[in-house]
Write a structure and sequence with these properties.
heterotrimer; A mainly alpha (496); B alpha/beta (306); C mainly alpha (156); A: 496 residues; mainly alpha; C: 156 residues
């Protein structure tokens, strides 16, 4: 079964240059992922022309290492400064930052590193074995299935709104309205653009995320700076012990499987995978009130899932030539420029390069784990830098990050506006994560719902006569109802 | 004291940046050239821009920077490029939307706000069906409205065909080829019109079958596939890419740019890249490119007014 | 918290009303009769927000009325509004400045302003941080990532 992988490893081991490129790729991927506003897509697109002259194996060593490294890197800033470096690390802020605030940043980072690395490895193993079967399965996803998947993703809002579901849902609806800004994807009619060309393609996601997370965090630090002498809690760079690792291992494996599957569905990426896995880990836990206060499983689940989505995303790319997200779109460009045509024939005619890709991804995840664990010592040091210095640096990065996504000053003002919204929401005790989830999933839900209506001539039967759709919609209802029960909202309503 | 220090730093930086920018006039180009790509990094237009930039740098003797400025299907990037100083240092990549968007009132600028430099490629629409429909007669299919299509909204490929056949197919709105190809493969729609490069892997594997191409001549990439014109439906439409500068750029500068980019485009390395990426090379000089866009403008306006 | 919740609900209702007003101006395409129109989705969401806000008001109404004055939490302390407001103003002005004088000068100015605002006394920090941070970022973007940062209208 793994003989393909072995062959790939052999061919990778035969070239030491590949190793150097991978280490370079992983390190730059982690850095880029950690900086809010810099994305792996940007880094890969910039590196792509550099790889024009390289041999295919080397080119992929570089691109795939950056890809894997960046997805992991996002968790570092999520844990240390409550600002996800990449969208897929948004769910990691819940427990990661909470644990870091308790002075155990080292433990949080170790958990995220191990989970990311193991999650990635599991997804590669899965990729080598069932890629063609899974690819065939995802072809059964038509508009109704995508709609149901998006609704299920949105239902997670109920489960992450710990304190008050109603307020969480309100934030989610707000996010959905924000997501509807721009050109309506079905009818090509502009909505809420106020005549601004910049808004035709909607509010750009990275500036929105930087605004919602990084700015409010800086503002809160400003308040505390003047109010009290900031006392640094002793920062333990202690990692996790073996017993703790064993306790989160089942969560890692389960989340990795979920992440790989979600990543394999075109259009669903690491961000959705991370939220779904977090939701499931929380639902499944015996003491789920610990979630949100620094529970290790709450870090392990999203991190294992988002890195596992990398392997998953390669499935439709390699076997269908269908890129599921912007990262794999760049990889598709890379493959074609190398003269390799992804598709069913790639596995039979170019099995050598496919095996190398598997081996490279496997090794990239291993390197990522090693480099990540070795780096924790240094990452944690960032916490001992005085807030008076950290805040201006983070704000500078926020400005440059939101600008450079699109070379647009407009986007910087978008960041500032959402920074204000995020800060007010923080003060009003409304969580902002539902907005992120809604902006990711809103267009997917609306477009596919309307597309399905057209496909079935305006008939609503697609909501109940397609098995996959029914499964996802039921899961969505289950998630919302069970969260409501947990919050005892119903009980209170009855007793009153 | 501190304020003085701040002032000092500011003055120092200002003077450094003023001196660095320089002001003398010399032969064009004397500093680096920017190409505004109105689509995301990693996409097809971006790939062509980065490739041509690489080959044109030696001919111009200056580095070329690619700036991705996305949004509004290209409108944001083009609006920015049209505003740039017309000195030949800011160029932009063209795609069919430069013509289409302003007709649909979705962009403040159109091709008339620019001077074309060179067109690189034109990928004709290729009608593809799933393996199980390989034996369909394409003319019958296009004349029978029971077959469903999947395409972008508005689907200019299908509109062009419909203008000839008069048959209106149900067209389910999808995004790019990344959404259309799986929709055909999974049997959710009967046919889609894509560029060959976007479906090459599936075509080679026999999972997707190309039935006809919407071009004047047959394509090198799929030589056995007939053109729609051969089959009696004279519908031609492609997705093309080219380079342009803001209107008002001096004629001499345009001539220098056209010369340099034409040389670059004719280099074997660039042609190899285009072939590997399955982009159908179709060079058009500055003047021909303008005429071509005028024709597209007329045809599309007619199509949408129906 | 109950009072804050009610204020939040009122704000959301206001927002939803605004969306409803704006969506009245969106045309409906006639070429796709089988599906819902362009403004339908945001309209449904606005109604959803209004319903949720009403639920929030109803569930908090009793508590808000009986809440003792000294238990009431304020949403914003006056000094935190001032503190954050100044910080926000610095960021905003720096971005406006960036349009004219470019990335480096504007960001140096922003970093200096923040260090003064945070009453940093250490001279080395005061000089090194504002220069090193923007220059390092500038170098990384301009030379490593090949992404040009704004050079400013004045030095165009």
């Amino acid at each position: 079964m793994f003989s393909n992988l072995m062959q790939g490893l052999m061919s990778v081991f035969s070239n030491p240059m590949v190793f150097l490129l991978m280490i370079f790729g992983v390190v730059s991927g982690i850095t880029i992922g950690a900086l809010p506003g810099l994305t792996s897509t940007m880094a890969m697109a910039v590196l792509l022309p550099v790889t024009f002259g390289m041999e295919a194996k080397m080119s992929f060593a570089l691109l795939l290492s950056v890809y894997c490294g960046a997805i992991y890197g996002g968790s570092i800033t999520a844990i240390l400064i409550n600002t996800p470096g990449t969208p897929s690390a948004a769910a990691t802020t819940f427990d990661g930052y909470a644990l870091a605030k308790r002075g155990q940043a080292g433990k949080a980072l170790a958990t995220s590193t191990l989970s990311s690395s193991i999650g990635g490895i599991i997804s590669v193993l899965l990729l080598t074995t069932i890629a063609p079967i899974l690819a065939k399965f995802t072809l059964r996803f038509a508009a109704p299935e995508f709609f149901a998947l998006a609704v299920f993703g949105l239902s997670i809002i109920a489960s992450i709104s710990n304190k008050n579901i109603v307020k969480g849902l309100m934030a989610g609806f707000f996010g959905l309205i924000i997501a509807s800004i721009g050109l309506d994807p079905i009818s090509a009619i502009p909505r809420f653009t106020f005549g601004r060309t910049e808004l035709l393609s909607g509010v750009a996601f990275i500036p929105l995320m930087v605004g919602l997370f990084a700015l409010p965090q800086c503002f809160v630090e400003m308040e505390s700076m003047f109010k009290e002498k900031t006392i640094l809690k002793g920062v333990h760079s202690k990692l996790i012990n073996f017993k703790e690792f064993l306790s989160i291992l089942p969560t890692i494996i389960k989340s990795a499987l979920m992440g790989a599957f979600i990543g394999a569905v075109p259009g669903a990426g690491g961000d959705i995978a991370a939220f779904t896995a977090y939701n499931e880990a929380k639902r499944n836990a015996k003491k789920n009130e610990n979630f949100g206060t620094g529970e290790l499983k709450g870090i392990a689940a999203p991190e294992a899932a988002n890195n596992a989505s990398t392997g998953g995303a390669m499935i439709p790319l390699l076997s269908l030539a269908v890129p599921g997200d912007s990262n794999t779109a760049v990889l598709l460009g890379g493959l074609i420029i190398m003269g390799l045509q992804p598709g069913p024939l790639l596995f039979t005619q170019q099995s050598d390069i496919v095996n190398s890709i598997f081996a490279i991804m496997l090794l990239a995840n291993v390197f990522m784990g090693i480099i990540g664990l070795a780096g924790i010592r240094f990452f944690v040091k960032a916490l001992s830098v005085p807030k008076q210095i950290i805040v201006p640096v983070v704000l500078t990065l926020s400005v440059v990050g939101s600008y450079s996504m699109n070379n647009s000053i407009f986007d910087v003002f978008v960041t500032i506006v959402f920074g204000i919204i995020g800060y007010v929401m923080l003060k009003a005790d409304v969580i902002v994560s539902p907005i992120v989830l809604a902006v990711i999933l809103g267009p997917m839900a609306e477009t596919n719902y309307r597309r399905a209506l057209i496909m079935f001539d305006g008939n609503y039967s697609f909501l109940y006569n397609r098995p996959i759709t029914v499964v996802f919609l039921s899961l969505a209802i289950f998630t919302i109802v069970s969260s409501l029960f947990k919050q005892k909202l119903f009980k209170r309503g009855v007793s009153r | 004291m501190r304020k003085l220090l701040v002032l000092f730093i500011c003055i120092a930086l200002v003077s450094v940046s003023v001196f660095a920018s320089g002001t003398k006039e010399a032969a064009f180009p004397e500093r680096n050239i920017q190409i505004i790509v109105p689509y995301a990094a990693g996409g097809g237009t971006d790939a062509v821009a980065r490739a041509i930039a690489q080959f044109a740098e030696p001919h111009l003797g200056q580095p070329i920077t690619i700036i991705n400025k996305t949004g509004g299907g290209g409108a944001v990037g083009w609006a920015e490029a049209a505003k740039a100083r017309p000195d030949g240092y800011t160029l932009t990549m063209f795609a069919p939307n430069i013509v289409n968007l302003s007709i649909m009132n979705l962009s403040p600028v159109g091709y008339k706000e620019f001077e074309p430099i060179l067109m690189f490629n034109n990928d004709p629409g290729t009608i593809v069906v799933a393996k199980k429909n390989a034996n369909l007669n394409v003319v019958e299919m296009l004349n029978d409205n029971k077959y469903k299509s999947g395409g972008e909204n508005p689907n200019f490929y299908l509109l062009t065909i419909q203008a000839q056949t008069g048959v209106i197919h149900q067209d389910i709105p999808y995004g790019g080829a990344a959404e259309r190809v799986p929709a055909v493969l999974g049997g959710h729609v009967d046919f889609a019109i894509v560029n060959v490069g976007e479906a090459k892997g599936q075509i080679d594997a026999g999972e997707l079958v190309p039935l006809a191409v919407m071009s004047e001549k047959r394509l090198d990439a799929v030589p056995n596939v007939p053109t729609l014109k051969e089959l009696g439906i004279d519908a031609q439409m492609g997705s093309w890419r080219g380079l342009a500068a803001p209107k008002g750029t001096p004629k001499e500068v345009i001539a220098i740019l056209e010369d340099a980019f034409t040389k670059a485009a004719n280099e074997q390395g660039f042609k190899d890249f285009m072939k590997k990426a399955a982009f159908n090379i179709d060079f058009k000089s500055s003047a021909d490119f303008w005429t071509f866009m005028e024709e597209q403008d007329v045809a599309t306006t007619k199509m949408l007014s129906k | 918290m109950a009072r804050i919740n009610i204020i939040v609900a009122l704000f959301f209702i206001l927002f939803a009303a605004l969306v409803l007003v704006l969506s009245a101006g969106i045309p409906v395409s006639e070429s796709q009769p089988l599906t819902m129109g362009t403004p339908t989705f945001p309209r449904m969401l606005s109604y959803g927000i209004i319903v949720l806000s009403l639920i929030l008001i109803v569930t908090n109404f009793h508590e808000a009325r009986t809440e003792k004055k000294e238990d009431r939490k304020r949403m914003f302390e006056p000094d935190s509004i001032k503190m954050v407001g100044i910080g926000l103003l610095i960021v905003f002005l720096s971005v406006v400045l960036m349009v004219f004088v470019g990335f480096i000068i504007a960001m140096v100015a922003m970093n200096v302003a923040f260090l003064f605002y945070f009453k940093v006394k250490n001279k080395v920090v005061l000089i090194v941080e504002p220069i090193v941070t923007p220059l390092l970022i500038y170098f990384m973007f301009q030379n490593v990532l090949n992404i040009p940062l704004p050079s400013g209208l004045l030095f165009y």
